[in-house]
C-alpha cells in the first residue's frame, strides 16, 4: 500500500506503508543509531514525533520481549529507507511490522532518508503528516497546518500511580516525566529501593515517601510546558540529593534560574561525543532531546557546566555549586547506546551515602 509523508513546507516523500495503516501528525526528527530501533520506538521521549532512522536497513533482527524501554511506546510514526520483513536473530519474537501494527504506529519505507535528514538539518525540525490517504497534497497540508501542536506529552507518558520496585539499598524516588526502563534497571542493579511517582507529584508528597535521593527522569517535549515540575524541583533542592537526566536536566536548570531553548534539529542517536570538563575525557553518549540549556544563562546562577557536546558546544552536564545536585543532558543508562557513562549512577549513590552521613556534597561530578 502506498503511503506518504507530507512536511509542513509542502515537501512530499512517497513510499510503502507498513505497520498500522493510520494517519498521524507529529514532529519529524531523525535518529543516527545503527542499531536499537526497538529501544528507540519504545522511548517515551519520542511521544508526538515521527522518527526517521538514518541507518538504511531496519527490522533485520526483529523485536524481542526484553529490550522495550516502556510498556506503551509513544512514537507517532516510523520512517525508514528499507524495512526488512523477515528478520533473522535467535532472540527475535516478532517482526517490526507486526509490532507497529499492534501498537497503532504507522510506518513508511522506501524513502530517501538521506535526503529527508539533510532537509531537516538544513531547515530544522518541522511537523509532518504520515498517511495512506489518496487525498491531494493541498488537502493533506490543510489538515496538517490546522492541527494544534502537542503540549501535553509528559502527561501522556508519565505513570498515573505510584509504583515501587523494592530493594535493600537507599530509597530513590524517580519522578516520571517519561522515564525509560533502563533508568530503573540501573538503580535496581545497584540495590536501590525504587519508588516511581507521577510527573505532577508535589514536593510534600515526595517528602512523605521518605526518599534518600530523587532522580528526575527523561521525557518528551518542551521543559517549559511542565512549570509545576520546575517548582517541585526548586522546593526539593537542598533537601535530597538530586540527579537529573535529559528533560530532568533541563528542569533542574530552570529551577536554578538558567534558561532553555529549542535546538534546530536536536540530538538523537547513540554516538554523540561529550567532553567531561573536569577530566578532559571524551565519552560517547546516547541522546534524545530537542531542547537544551542556554549556556549564557548559566552565568549568575549557582550552577557549573560540567560537560559539553564536542560537536556543537551545547551544555551536556551541570552541577550545583553548594548543594548535592547534578544533571546530564545525555542518557547514562544508554539503551540503546554505549555504556561509557553508567558510572554517573554510582556517583549519585555516593552523593546519597555522603548525605546520609551528614557529609558536605559539593562536587557531584567528581
From TrEMBL:
Report the Pfam families cross-referenced here.
CPSase_sm_chain, GATase
- Active site at 246, 331, 333
- Report the pathway entry: Amino-acid biosynthesis; L-arginine biosynthesis; carbamoyl phosphate from bicarbonate: step 1/1; Pyrimidine metabolism; UMP biosynthesis via de novo pathway; (S)-dihydroorotate from bicarbonate: step 1/3
Catalytic reaction equation(s): hydrogencarbonate + L-glutamine + 2 ATP + H2O = carbamoyl phosphate + L-glutamate + 2 ADP + phosphate + 2 H(+); L-glutamine + H2O = L-glutamate + NH4(+)
Give me any GO biological process, just one.
'de novo' UMP biosynthetic process
Instruction: Answer yes or no on keyword Electron transport.
Output: no
Mind listing the UniProt keywords for this protein, alphabetically?
Answer: Amino-acid biosynthesis, Arginine biosynthesis, ATP-binding, Glutamine amidotransferase, Ligase, Nucleotide-binding, Pyrimidine biosynthesis
**Which InterPro entries does the entry link to?**
Anth_synth/Amidotransfase, CarbamoylP_synth_ssu, CarbamoylP_synth_ssu_N, CarbP_synth_ssu_N_sf, Class_I_gatase-like, CPSase_GATase1, GATASE
Q: Which GO terms describe its molecular function?
A: ATP binding; carbamoyl-phosphate synthase (glutamine-hydrolyzing) activity
Q: Where is the Carbamoyl-phosphate synthase small subunit N-terminal domain?
A: 1-131
Q: What residues does L-glutamine bind to?
A: 45, 219, 221, 247, 250, 288, 290-291
What EC numbers are recorded for this enzyme? 6.3.5.5
Gene3D superfamilies attached here?
3.40.50.880, Carbamoyl-phosphate synthase small subunit, N-terminal domain (3.50.30.20)
The protein's assembly and partners: Composed of two chains; the small (or glutamine) chain promotes the hydrolysis of glutamine to ammonia, which is used by the large (or ammonia) chain to synthesize carbamoyl phosphate. Tetramer of heterodimers (alpha,beta)4.
This chain's function reads: Small subunit of the glutamine-dependent carbamoyl phosphate synthetase (CPSase). CPSase catalyzes the formation of carbamoyl phosphate from the ammonia moiety of glutamine, carbonate, and phosphate donated by ATP, constituting the first step of 2 biosynthetic pathways, one leading to arginine and/or urea and the other to pyrimidine nucleotides. The small subunit (glutamine amidotransferase) binds and cleaves glutamine to supply the large subunit with the substrate ammonia.
Give the protein's recorded name.
Carbamoyl phosphate synthase small chain
Organism the protein comes from: Calditerricola satsumensis
* Name of the gene this protein is made from: pyrAA
Amino acid at each position: 500500500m502506498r503511503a506518504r509523508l507530507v512536511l509542513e513546507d509542502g515537501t512530499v516523500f512517497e513510499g510503502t506503508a507498513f505497520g498500522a495503516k493510520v494517519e498521524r501528525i507529529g514532529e519529524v526528527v531523525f535518529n543516527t543509531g545503527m542499531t536499537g530501533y526497538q529501544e528507540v520506538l519504545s522511548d517515551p521521549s519520542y511521544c508526538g514525533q515521527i522518527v526517521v532512522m538514518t541507518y538504511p536497513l531496519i527490522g533485520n533482527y526483529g523485536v524481542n520481549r526484553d529490550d522495550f524501554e516502556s510498556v506503551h511506546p509513544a512514537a507517532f510514526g516510523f520512517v525508514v529507507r528499507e524495512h526488512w520483513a523477515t528478520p533473522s536473530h535467535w532472540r527475535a519474537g516478532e517482526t517490526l511490522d507486526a509490532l507497529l501494527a499492534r501498537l497503532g504506529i504507522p510506518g513508511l519505507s522506501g524513502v530517501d532518508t538521506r535526503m529527508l535528514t539533510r532537509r531537516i538539518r538544513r531547515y530544522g525540525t518541522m511537523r509532518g503528516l504520515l498517511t495512506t490517504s489518496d487525498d491531494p497534497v493541498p488537502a493533506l497540508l490543510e489538515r496538517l497546518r490546522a492541527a494544534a501542536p502537542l503540549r501535553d506529552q509528559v502527561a501522556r507518558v508519565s505513570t498515573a500511580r505510584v509504583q515501587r520496585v523494592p530493594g535493600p539499598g537507599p530509597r530513590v524516588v524517580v519522578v516520571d516525566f517519561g522515564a525509560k526502563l533502563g533508568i530503573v534497571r540501573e538503580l535496581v542493579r545497584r540495590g536501590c529501593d525504587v519508588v516511581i511517582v507521577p510527573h505532577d507529584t508535589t514536593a510534600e508528597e515526595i517528602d512523605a515517601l521518605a526518599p534518600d535521593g530523587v532522580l528526575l527522569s527523561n521525557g518528551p517535549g518542551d521543559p517549559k510546558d511542565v512549570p509545576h515540575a520546575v517548582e517541585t524541583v526548586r522546593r526539593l533542592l537542598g533537601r535530597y540529593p538530586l540527579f537529573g537526566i535529559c528533560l530532568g536536566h533541563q528542569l533542574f536548570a530552570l529551577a536554578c534560574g538558567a534558561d532553555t531553548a529549542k535546538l534546530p534539529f536536536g540530538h538523537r542517536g547513540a554516538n554523540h561525543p561529550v567532553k567531561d570538563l573536569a577530566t578532559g575525557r571524551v565519552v560517547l553518549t546516547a541522546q534524545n532531546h530537542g531542547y537544551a540549556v542556554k549556556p549564557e544563562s548559566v552565568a549568575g546562577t549557582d550552577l557549573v557546566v560540567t560537560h559539553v557536546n564536542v560537536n556543537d558546544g551545547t551544555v551536556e552536564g551541570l552541577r550545583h555549586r553548594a548543594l548535592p545536585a547534578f544533571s546530564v543532558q545525555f542518557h547514562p543508562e544508554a539503551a540503546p547506546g554505549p555504556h561509557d557513562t553508567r558510572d554517573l549512577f554510582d556517583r549519585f549513590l555516593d552523593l546519597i551515602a555522603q548525605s546520609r552521613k551528614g557529609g558536605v556534597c559539593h562536587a557531584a561530578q567528581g
